[in-house]
Each structure stands twice: as C-alpha cells, then as structure tokens.
Specification:
- With about 130 residues, this protein is mainly alpha-helical.
- It has one domain.
- Helices cover about 55% and strands about 5% of the residues.
- It is built from 5 helices and 2 strands, in the order ααααβαβ.
- A two-stranded antiparallel sheet has the order 1-2.
- Helix 1 packs antiparallel against helix 4 and helix 2 packs antiparallel against helix 3.
- The longest helix is centred in the N-terminal third of the chain and has 19 residues.
- It starts with a helix and ends in a 5-residue tail after the last strand.
- About 20% of the residues have low confidence.
C-alpha cells in the first residue's frame, strides 16, 4: 500500500507549502484505510462508472478531512486514481484478485466523466476488475 501512495505522490504537488509532517503521516494512513475499504467493492466485477465513483469517494473523503493540508484544499482525482489503481494491480499480481481486464478508455471516460461518474471532464485510465479470491 505504501508503494501505491508513494508512487501517486511522486512529481505531484499534493501538500500545501509549510504543511505539518505529522499531518502528512495521518493523511497517508487514512488514505491507505480508504483505499483498502474501497478495494473490498472489487469482490465482484466493477464497471468503469463504479470505478470512477470509488476514486471520487476517496478524493472527497480525504479532502473533507485534510483540506487544510492539501494543495488547493482537495486531493486531485488523478492522484487518487493512481493510488487506487496501483493497489488493485498489486492485489491482482499477488493473486488476491481473480481477474484483471485493463482497457484504455480515455475517450469514453473523458466524454462521460462529467455527466456520469466523475463530475468533471478528465482523461481516465480505467479498469474492470474481477473479485477477490477467498
């Protein structure tokens, strides 16, 4: 999990200048918890829209709790997306997800994001995941 979050934060100004290191640790711990919670939804196939909604829930929850720590007061969708996708990829690679089907849906998501799932126009690499193995 820490690798997924660290990778998502690379080359990305997530924190406000002068923010407290202790708060950053609490933020990353809670982010890990939210990603683990959302990953439990992947015990069954998840649509692209549901995947976008999961990413947005993570961003919204962290923004509400740690807005004072975050640059512009929120966690960017793409940063949240990268962390969740990397964690799900780890679960699949370690044999804890039954299947993984990856499709670059940049056109679909950028057209449908505002009206369907993400509430904004973004380019999204999205995945449809199978369920967790028992």
């Amino acid at each position: 999990m820490s690798n997924a979050i660290q990778s998502a934060l690379q080359h990305n100004k997530t924190y406000r200048t002068g923010s407290d290191d202790g708060m950053r640790g609490a933020f990353r711990a809670e982010w890990s918890e939210f990603i683990r919670e959302e990953s439990q939804r992947y015990t069954q196939p998840v649509s692209d829209v549901q995947h976008c909604e999961a990413i947005q829930r993570i961003s919204d929850r962290l923004g509400a709790r740690f807005g004072q720590l975050l640059n512009d007061g929120h966690l960017r969708f793409g940063t949240s997306q990268k962390a969740l996708n990397l964690y799900l990829k780890f679960l699949w690679g370690s044999g804890r997800l039954q299947s993984r089907r990856t499709a670059p849906l940049t056109g679909l998501c950028s057209m449908q994001a505002e009206s369907m799932a993400c509430g904004r126009s973004v380019t999204v690499w999205s995945n449809t995941w199978g369920g967790l193995k028992p």
